[in-house]
C-alpha cells in the first residue's frame, strides 16, 4: 500500500471520530488518485460508519394503552412491538435492511427432507438478562406458548404448519413442518415469537427477562417504558444507546410538538398533513420509507355480484388510483396494481395490464358480465386505514362515470374488525406486509386461511402455493410466484390501492444506518440500531 | 338528631343507591357495545379459536348476570377485581391500574382548584363591586371567551404559545410517580392553566350573579344607609348569604376537573384517570371501566354532599331550626 493510501486509510478512521474535515479528506483522496466525488462519498461513508456509543434517547410512539402487557400473544401495536420485542427481546432470526433473513439468536438454520425439517442452531454463550444460559428448551417453550388448541395468540395460525417441535441437545432446535417450506426462517423472525426463559415448564413472559439489547427498568402501561443497555448482549457492538425511553403519545399534534420542543428525539407516524411544515425545521430529519405495507379494498368473491370476475375487473378499472394517491395520501404512498407483494419483496412482479382508471374498459367488462349498471355497497371506516372514508367517496365519483353506483357506508370505528371486516361484501383493510411472498399468500390468499378476506379459492393458485413452498431452485420459484401474482391480479377479489409509506421524524441528534422497511420504525428495532450523532 | 347530621346521613344513603344504579347502567351499556376485550386486543389477528380461548381465560364466556353479581360481590368485600389484561399467573388488579392514575388526576384537580377558586371568587367579587364598568365587562368577555372555546383548542393555543413559540413550559406532561414535587408541578403547568381557563367563567359569573341579586335586599340597603363602604357591604353582608349557590357551582366544577379532564389529558399526554377510562372502553376492559364509573359517581356524590353541607352551614335558619 502506497504511503498516500495508508494516510487515506488513517484519515478514514479519524474522519469517523470527527477529527478530519471534509475538505482535508477530499484533498487527500484526490492526491491518492480518487475523484472529488469519490472522495466525498468515501468521507460520508467514513463519518457514517462510526456509530457513537452512549447517551439516552426518548422515542415518542403513536400507540400505547393501559391494557398493554409483556405477553407476546398480543403485541397489538407499535408500542409493545418496539419496546418489548425490538428493544427487549430477540427472535431466532431477523430481517435486515435489504429484506433478507439473517441469524439473530440462531447462528445457523438448515433445511432437510425437502424443507419439511429445519434445524436451528443457537449461538454459543447466549444468556438471558438474569445471566441464565439460553437453551433449546427455552426456544421450544417460547414457541409452544403460542401453539396448541387453547392458544389465544395472534401467532397461532402462523405456527399451525409446525407438526413437531423438539430440542436436540442444548443448542439445536428441530422443527418438523406439515409441508415443505423454504421460507420458514422468515416466519420465525416474527415479533410475536421472542425467546423467553422457562419457569415451571412454561414461558416466563411477565418478568421481562429476555435476551435483548436492553433490559426493562420501568413500565407504566399506556404511558412509558424505560430500558437500560444490556452489557452482555450477543451483538458485541450493539446497542449504541445507554438508555432509551418509549413514550406513548397517541395525539398526533402532541407528538409533533413534543418533537419540535425537544421533549422527545424521535416520533413515529408523523402527521402527513403538516409534514411540509415540519420539513422546514432545520433540526428535524424526516424519513419516508416504502415498506411492504399496503391498503386494500377486499371484495367477497363468494357473494354476488362480486363472484363474477368481470364485475371485479370492471370495478378495478373504475378506480382512479393516481388521484387517490395524490389527494388522500398526499404522495406519501405508491400506487398499487392489485398485487399485494411489494416491490421490495423477493420474486415480486408488476403484472400487466396495469389497472389505471379506464371507464371504457370498466363498461366493457360490466356489459360482458351482463349488467348495464351496477349498484353495490362499500363499507369503510378510518379504522381500516387513515383516509379510507375519503377514498370511498372519491371512488364513488369515478365509478359513477362507469355506470357503477356505489353506496359508501361509513361504519363505526369501534369494533370495525368484528363487524365489518370479513363480514361485509366490500370493505377496507390494511396489511403491514410480510418479507416473503409465500407468507402473504398463506395468511391472506390461501383457500380457507383465517384472514382470507376475499374468501377466494383458486385451484391453480392453491397448486402453485404448495409447489412454491418446497421448491428450492431460485429460477423455478421466481416463475411460480410470478404466476401466482398474475393470478391474483387477474382473478382475485382484492383491490390493492396503494403501498403506504412509513413516515417518521427525528431530531438530527439521532443518527442511523440503512433503515429496514419490513416493519415500521426500522423493523421495530430502532432502539437497537440507532445512535446519538 | 341534629338536622345537619340527618341530612348528611340521608345523602350518603341516597348516594349508595345511586352508586348501585350507576354500576348497573354502566355494565349494561358495555354489554350492548359490539366487540369485546379479546377481539380488541387481537385486532385484525383475531380468529374464532383464539378469541374463544381468550374469552375463557378472562371469564367472558359466563353469562352477564353471573359476571355482574360476582363483580358486585367482590366490590362489597373491597376487591375491585382484575383487569382483563391479566393472564394466568399474572394478576393485574384494577387498583394497580387505576390508583396511580387517580392520584395524578387528583393532583391536577387539586392544583387547578387551588388557583381557580380564589381567582374566580376574587374576580367575581370585584366584578360585582365594579358592576357595569369597563372592568366588569372586560372580565366577563374574557372568561366567556375561554369557556366558549373547546378545551382542546385552548390547550393547543397554550401549547403553541407557551411551549413551542416561547419555550416556557413543557409540551409533554408525562409525570411519573418518582418525580420530585417541583418538577411535577412544572410539567403540569400547561394542563393546569388550560383547566383553570376552562372552569373560571362559570364560577366567576355565578359569584357575581349571586352577589348582585342579593344587593337588592333591604338589609343591604340598611348597610349602605348606615355608611358601610361598598367593599365591606359585599364582603361582610352580601357574601355570607351567597355561599349556597357559589358552593354548588364550585362543587360542580371540581367534579368536572376529576371526571371531564380527559381531553386535556390526551392533548398533553398527562397520565390521568380519564385517559385510563377511554383506553379501557376502547378495549372493552369491563372491570376497569366499571371501577372508573364508580369513582366518578363517588366524586360527584361527595362533592354534592359537601356543597349541600356548606349551604346548610352558612344558613342559620337551616342550621338551627326551631
Describe the structure.
The complex is a heterodimer of chains A (533) and B (322). By secondary structure, chain A is α+β, with helices and mostly antiparallel strands. Chain A is 32% helix and 22% strand. Chain A is built from 19 helices and 21 strands. Chain A has helices at 3-17, 22-31, 36-48, 78-87, 136-144, 156-159, 184-187, 252-260, 275-279, 309-317, 321-327, 359-368, 388-400, 416-419, 437-445, 459-470, 474-491, 520-523, 526-529; strands spanning 56-61, 93-95, 101-103, 106-112, 117-122, 162-168, 172-177, 198-199, 202-203, 214-220, 224-229, 243-248, 266-267, 284-298, 333-335, 374-380, 404-410, 429-431, 494-507, 510-511, 531-532. In chain A, β10 and β11 form a beta hairpin. In chain A, α1 (3-17) packs across α3 (36-48) and α16 (459-470) packs antiparallel against α17 (474-491). Chain A is globular. The two termini of chain A are 32 Å apart. Chain B has 322 residues and is an all-alpha fold. Helix content of chain B is 77%, strand content 0%. Chain B is built from 15 helices and no strands. In chain B, α5 (94-129) crosses α9 (189-214). The longest helix of chain B has 36 residues, at 94-129. The radius of gyration of chain B is 24 Å and the shape is globular. The two termini of chain B are 13 Å apart. The model of chain B has no long low-confidence stretch (mean pLDDT 87). The chains are: A alpha+beta (533), B mainly alpha (322). At the A-B interface, α8 and α14 of A face α2, α3, α5, α7 and α12 of B.
Amino acid at each position: 500500500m502506497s504511503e498516500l493510501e495508508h494516510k487515506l486509510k488513517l484519515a478514514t478512521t479519524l474522519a469517523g471520530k470527527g477529527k478530519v474535515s471534509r475538505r482535508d479528506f477530499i484533498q487527500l483522496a484526490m492526491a491518492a488518485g480518487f475523484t472529488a466525488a469519490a472522495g466525498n462519498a468515501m468521507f460520508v461513508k467514513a463519518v457514517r460508519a462510526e456509530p457513537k456509543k452512549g447517551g439516552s434517547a426518548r422515542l415518542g410512539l403513536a400507540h400505547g394503552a393501559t391494557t398493554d402487557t409483556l405477553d407476546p400473544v398480543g403485541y397489538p401495536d407499535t408500542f409493545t412491538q418496539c419496546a418489548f420485542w425490538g428493544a427487549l427481546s430477540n427472535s431466532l432470526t431477523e430481517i435486515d435492511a435489504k429484506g433478507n433473513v439473517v441469524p439473530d439468536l440462531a447462528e445457523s438454520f438448515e433445511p432437510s427432507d425437502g424443507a419439511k425439517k429445519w434445524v436451528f442452531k443457537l449461538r454459543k454463550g447466549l444468556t438471558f438478562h438474569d445471566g441464565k444460559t439460553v437453551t433449546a428448551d427455552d426456544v421450544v417453550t417460547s414457541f409452544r406458548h403460542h401453539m396448541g388448541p387453547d392458544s389465544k395468540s395472534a401467532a397461532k395460525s402462523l405456527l399451525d404448519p409446525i407438526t413437531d417441535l423438539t430440542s436436540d441437545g442444548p443448542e439445536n432446535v428441530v422443527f418438523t413442518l406439515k409441508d415443505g417450506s423454504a421460507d420458514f426462517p422468515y416466519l420465525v423472525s416474527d415479533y410475536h415469537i421472542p425467546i423467553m426463559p422457562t419457569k415451571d415448564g412454561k414461558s416466563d413472559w411477565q418478568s421481562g427477562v429476555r435476551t435483548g439489547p436492553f433490559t426493562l427498568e420501568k413500565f407504566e402501561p399506556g404511558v412509558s417504558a424505560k430500558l437500560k443497555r444490556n452489557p452482555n448482549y450477543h451483538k458485541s457492538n450493539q446497542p449504541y444507546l445507554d438508555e432509551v425511553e418509549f413514550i406513548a403519545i397517541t395525539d398526533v399534534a402532541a407528538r409533533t410538538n413534543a418533537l419540535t420542543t425537544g421533549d422527545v428525539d424521535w416520533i413515529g407516524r408523523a402527521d402527513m398533513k403538516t409534514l411540509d411544515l415540519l420539513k422546514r425545521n432545520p433540526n428535524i430529519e424526516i424519513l419516508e420509507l416504502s415498506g411492504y405495507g399496503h391498503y386494500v379494498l377486499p371484495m367477497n368473491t363468494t357473494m354476488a355480484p362480486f363472484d363474477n370476475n368481470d364485475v371485479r375487473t370492471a370495478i378495478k378499472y373504475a378506480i382512479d388510483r393516481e388521484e387517490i394517491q395524490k389527494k388522500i395520501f398526499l404522495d406519501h404512498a405508491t400506487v398499487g396494481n392489485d398485487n399485494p407483494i411489494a416491490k421490495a419483496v423477493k420474486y415480486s412482479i408488476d403484472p400487466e395490464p396495469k389497472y389505471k382508471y379506464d371507464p371504457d374498459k370498466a363498461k366493457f367488462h360490466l356489459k360482458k358480465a351482463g349488467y348495464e349498471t351496477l349498484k353495490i355497497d362499500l363499507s369503510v371506516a378510518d379504522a381500516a386505514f387513515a383516509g379510507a372514508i375519503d377514498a370511498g367517496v372519491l371512488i364513488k365519483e369515478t365509478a359513477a362515470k362507469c355506470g357503477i353506483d356505489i353506496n359508501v357506508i361509513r361504519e363505526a370505528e369501534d369494533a370495525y374488525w368484528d363487524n365489518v371486516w370479513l363480514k361485509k361484501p366490500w370493505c377496507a383493510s390494511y396489511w403491514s406486509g410480510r418479507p416473503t411472498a409465500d407468507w402473504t399468500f398463506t395468511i391472506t390468499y390461501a383457500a380457507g386461511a383465517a384472514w382470507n378476506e376475499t374468501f377466494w379459492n383458486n385451484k391453480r393458485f392453491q397448486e402453485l402455493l404448495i409447489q412454491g413452498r418446497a421448491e428450492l431452485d431460485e429460477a423455478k420459484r421466481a416463475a411460480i410466484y410470478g404466476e401466482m401474482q398474475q393470478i391474483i391480479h387477474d382473478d382475485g377479489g382484492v383491490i390493492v390501492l396503494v403501498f403506504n409509506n412509513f413516515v417518521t421524524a427525528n431530531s438530527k441528534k439521532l443518527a442511523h444506518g440503512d433503515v429496514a422497511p419490513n416493519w415500521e420504525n426500522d423493523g421495530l428495532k430502532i432502539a437497537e440500531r440507532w445512535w446519538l450523532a | 338528631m341534629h338536622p345537619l347530621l340527618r341530612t348528611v346521613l340521608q345523602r350518603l344513603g341516597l348516594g349508595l343507591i345511586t352508586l348501585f344504579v350507576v354500576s348497573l347502567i354502566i355494565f349494561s351499556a358495555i354489554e350492548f357495545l359490539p366487540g369485546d376485550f379479546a377481539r380488541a386486543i387481537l385486532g385484525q389477528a383475531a380468529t374464532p379459536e383464539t378469541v374463544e380461548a381468550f374469552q375463557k381465560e378472562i371469564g367472558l364466556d359466563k353469562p352477564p348476570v353471573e359476571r355482574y353479581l360476582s363483580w358486585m360481590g367482590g366490590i362489597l368485600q373491597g376487591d375491585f377485581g382484575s383487569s382483563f389484561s391479566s393472564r394466568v399467573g399474572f394478576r393485574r388488579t384494577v387498583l394497580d391500574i387505576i390508583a396511580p392514575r387517580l392520584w395524578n388526576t387528583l393532583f391536577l384537580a387539586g392544583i387547578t382548584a387551588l388557583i381557580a377558586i380564589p381567582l374566580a371568587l376574587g374576580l367575581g367579587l370585584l366584578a360585582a363591586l365594579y358592576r357595569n364598568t369597563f372592568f366588569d365587562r372586560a372580565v366577563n368577555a374574557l372568561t366567556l371567551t375561554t369557556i366558549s372555546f373547546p378545551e382542546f383548542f385552548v390547550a393547543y393555543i397554550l401549547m403553541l404559545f407557551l411551549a413551542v413559540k416561547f419555550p416556557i413550559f413543557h409540551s409533554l406532561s408525562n409525570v411519573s410517580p418518582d418525580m420530585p414535587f417541583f418538577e411535577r408541578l412544572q410539567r403540569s403547568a400547561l394542563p393546569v392553566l388550560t383547566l383553570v381557563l376552562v372552569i373560571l367563567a362559570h364560577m366567576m359569573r355565578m359569584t357575581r350573579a349571586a352577589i348582585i341579586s342579593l344587593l337588592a335586599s333591604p338589609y343591604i340597603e340598611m348597610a349602605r344607609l348606615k355608611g358601610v363602604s361598598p367593599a365591606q357591604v359585599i364582603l361582610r353582608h352580601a357574601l355570607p348569604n351567597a355561599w349556597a349557590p357559589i358552593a354548588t357551582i364550585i362543587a360542580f366544577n371540581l367534579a368536572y376537573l376529576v371526571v371531564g379532564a380527559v381531553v386535556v389529558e390526551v392533548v398533553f399526554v398527562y397520565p390521568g384517570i380519564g385517559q385510563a377510562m377511554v383506553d379501557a372502553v376502547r378495549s372493552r376492559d369491563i372491570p376497569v371501566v366499571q371501577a372508573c364509573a364508580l369513582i366518578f359517581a363517588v366524586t360527584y356524590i361527595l362533592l354534592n354532599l359537601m356543597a349541600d353541607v356548606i349551604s346548610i352551614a352558612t344558613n342559620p335558619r337551616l342550621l338551627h331550626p326551631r
